Amino acid sequence: MINPRPSRRRFLAGLGATGTAALLSGCVTSTSSSKSSSDGAVTLQSNLSAPQAKAAMEDVVAAYGKKGGVSLNTVAAETFRTQLPTYLTSANPPDVYTWYPGSVAEAYAKKDLLLGLDDLWGTSDLKRYSKALNSLCTSSSGKKVFVPATYYWWGMFYRKSNFAKWGVSEPKTWDDFLDLCDKLKSKGVAPIGLGAGGNTPWVASAWFDYLDIRINGAKYHRGLLAGQHRFDDPEVRKVFDRWQEVLPYFDPNGTAGAFQDATTVLLNGRSGMMLIGTFFADAAPKDALDDIDFFRFPVIDPKVPLAEEAPTDGYFASARTGRKDGVLDLLGYLATAEAQELYIKGSSGTVLPCHPDAKDAGTPLVKKGRKHIEEAAELTQYFNRDSSDALQPTADTALTKFLAKPKEIGSILTDWQREAEKIWNA
Amino acid sequence: MAVLTAPHRKSPVPAPSRGGRGRGPGRTPPLVLAFVLVPLLVEAVWVFWPALQGFYLALTSWDGVSAPKFVGLGNFREMAGDDTFRGAMGHTVLWLVLFGGLSALLGLATALLLQQERRGIGFYRAALFLPVVFSLVATALVWQAIYQPDGVLNQLLESLGLGSLRHAWLADQDTALYAVIVPALWRQIGYVMVLYLAGLKGIDPALYEAAKVDGASAWQRFRHVTLPQLRSVNAVVLSVIVIDSLRSFDVVWSLTRGGPYHSSELLSTYMYSTAFQSLRLGYGSALAVVIFLLAFGVIASYLVRAFREAD
């Protein structure tokens, strides 16, 4: 067995040498720029993997399928999020994606990865979409890159029957709100549920967002998330000072479970209310839905223009698609009232359509939500959508630490700024 | 590099090996060569090549979208001043000691306990090995329910009159890491036990008899017969434990995601979150290189020592 050894070694040596050579040539992570093939159906990559939302997307695709071929590919939300950069930079990418407008889409638009949709916006129903949506879907270079479909709202949700039982009502001002918390606490109820544990620590960002847009305004908030201000600025400190006023009213188990668990606690009447988006209704039993109501996050400074969080969902397309005509046709359909109504009918029905003529689910809750958004002077998207998914974990760390050790806020904000700079400079 | 220089050392070997194919008595048949080379090629493409890429990426700053930018040792310099990295390193060492040490000790203890063939012993072995069969993610879901504020553990404490110990186990920075180690340990003990059972089976019973005849006590038999005989198994167990500790990820990620605020962060979870959440793939690769060096260093130094002793 002596004979084969040198040859095997030589083979290994050769292998190592080729490996090193290829490594040095730097082709390891180079990206290809070829266009994908132009035959076959348009592919729609969807992250809407919750059962109801997935079924609703299938309805929409089936309805469109009468006109042209499209293959829907539903991917688990977390996989979709981590794989999206890979999809967009691959040589043969999927054509259309569910995703978010604003700074999230802008990050890809800046790298020329998104298909320009100016023609579509100029010729279809999109012409009549609101001005706010128009600017939300425009990249910094002035190009339209996004087709909005639906949006939803955040608010302080509670159970009507429980509020009646406890003899309390919706507060309007910050002081009313503190009174309400006091009253609930005296009845042995945890006034404010959270659900920032488990796999949903990002829920805590809603409190940061709302306090910031109530105290410093939406404009400052967007600038802060874009890196134009610092997290250790006195303005941000004011947000946390205000937060400390309500901290004693938070459910002590607020960071121990996910928002789905906190929803159960809320519906069982063990917590009083919860700052959450309408998606939480997906985790609620159908019979409890009629009993759910919400109120606006209390105004703190009346001089600050009223802003609300209204995250918009929709679609963008890869710049490398080889089926541009099919893609534009599909996106045009997704922008119609018909497609959006179909989606709302199939899903839990708590989202609002972006098309000005499209009908919403028509329940009292949704009507109230629509009015709630229309009254706002400014709309924000949510922490990760106004910044990036990469910045979100820095907020999660800072906010869970604040909830556990509110006295250390000074060092928490310094750390937050340092971590955020790493993301902004990356 | 050792591989590259190897042929030079071998150069004095006479020519036959380089000579014509298929000649000479000791020639390897092409089929055997194919059996060796084809898997090697597959391994090279799917394992060595990505690994080499990882080393290259560790020297870059890359967001996964644009082309990677070469930054030299910048990532490693940043690591030196990174508190989260230092914390994760400390937690990983603690994990190695607690998870590794306890699973080796308890695995050996259960193996010794369950090595005799008695009636019903198969049931106990199976029961201890059962957790290994479950996916760690599924295991984590069950333990998450146990650790809930209203979960089994807290209810148990309550019913025992220890209500003051009630706790949000996974949400408290003081208990999160330990709460995550327990499910990992629960699974690992069964695995280590099977390794040791196999090792114990291989010990010649005549050795015990001889020791008994010489008047050795139970402890002396264990100390001077069993332990030395288990040396080769120990090498395997050590490698398994070190590798499993450093790659422990699924159970931590499903239970706490390294939180609250990095208090249960391991190198593996920190690597994942920097690479795929913060999208700093260069820094994430640098962390992966550190993990590799640690695992490789510990195992290599042990193996070198073990071989030296064997010579």
Automatic annotation (TrEMBL), chain A:
Signal peptide: none annotated. InterPro entries: Bact_solute-bd_prot1 (IPR050490), SBP (IPR006059), TAT_signal (IPR006311), TAT_signal_bac_arc (IPR019546). It comes from the Bacteria. This is ABC transporter substrate-binding protein. It comes from Streptomyces lanatus.
Automatic annotation (TrEMBL), chain B:
It is found in: Cell membrane. Residues 1-25 are annotated as: Disordered. Residues 89-304 form the ABC transmembrane type-1 domain. InterPro entries: ABC_transporter_permease (IPR051393), MetI-like (IPR000515), MetI-like_sf (IPR035906). Keywords: Cell membrane, Membrane, Transmembrane, Transmembrane helix, Transport. The chain crosses the membrane at residues 31-52, 93-114, 126-146, 176-198, 281-304. Pfam families: BPD_transp_1 (PF00528). Coiled coil: none annotated. It is a multi-pass membrane protein. Belongs to the binding-protein-dependent transport system permease family. This is Sugar ABC transporter permease. It comes from Streptomyces lanatus.
